[in-house]
Amino acid sequence: RRELLDFGVKVSIIEPGCFGTNILDSAEAKQSIVRAWDRAPSEVKQEYGQQYFQAYNSNFQHFITTANPKLSLVTNAMEHALTAKYPRTRYGCGLDARLFYIPLSYLPSAWADRL
């Protein structure tokens, strides 16, 4: 973004949280997690453990059920970034992005890792 300023190119960053799209809610997406685990070498499965797989799968299911259905939040941000005379540098789309993901990105890496 900063490198392009010298050339008069403005860059806006669209940072969406978790939104409900067809790819997220598809049976294929859910099955891909199971297939990846099934294909993993036994050493990998042993290192991560069944508990890790179950927690990952549970988190994915949680994302599906809590995903924001209002995709217009993202498309409106894109439209504003493209058409505004003074577009913002960053657009946080969705409550989860504004309250968790974006503030987390401003923390020192060690702090963010602990969270």
Total number of domains: 1
Output the structural class: mainly alpha
List low-confidence stretches. Answer: none
Largest sheet: 2 strands, parallel
Q: Outline, from the CA principal axes?
A: elongated
- Reading side by side through the largest sheet, how are the strands ordered? 1-2
Helix content: 55-70%
In percent terms, what proportion of residues is strand?
5-15%
Number of helices: 6
Number of strands: 2
End-to-end CA span:
28 Å
Indicate the mean pLDDT.
Answer: 87
Radius of gyration: 18 Å
Instruction: Give the helices and strands as they follow along the chain.
Output: HEHHHEHH
Protein name: H17B6 dehydrogenase
GO biological process, one term: steroid metabolic process
GO molecular function: oxidoreductase activity
Family: Belongs to the short-chain dehydrogenases/reductases (SDR) family.
Brief sketch in words of this structure:
This protein is mostly helical and 115 residues long. It is built from six helices and two strands. The chain has helices at 2-5, 27-39, 42-66, 72-83, 95-106, 109-114; strands at residues 13-16, 90-93.
Folded structure, characterized:
This protein has 115 residues and is mainly alpha-helical. It has one domain (13-113). It contains 6 helices and 2 strands. The chain has helices at residues 2-5, 27-39, 42-66, 72-83, 95-106, 109-114, and strands spanning 13-16, 90-93. The protein has a two-stranded parallel sheet with strand order 1-2. It is elongated and about 55 Å long. The chain starts with a helix and ends with a helix. Belongs to the short-chain dehydrogenases/reductases (SDR) family. This is H17B6 dehydrogenase. One of its GO terms (molecular function) is oxidoreductase activity.
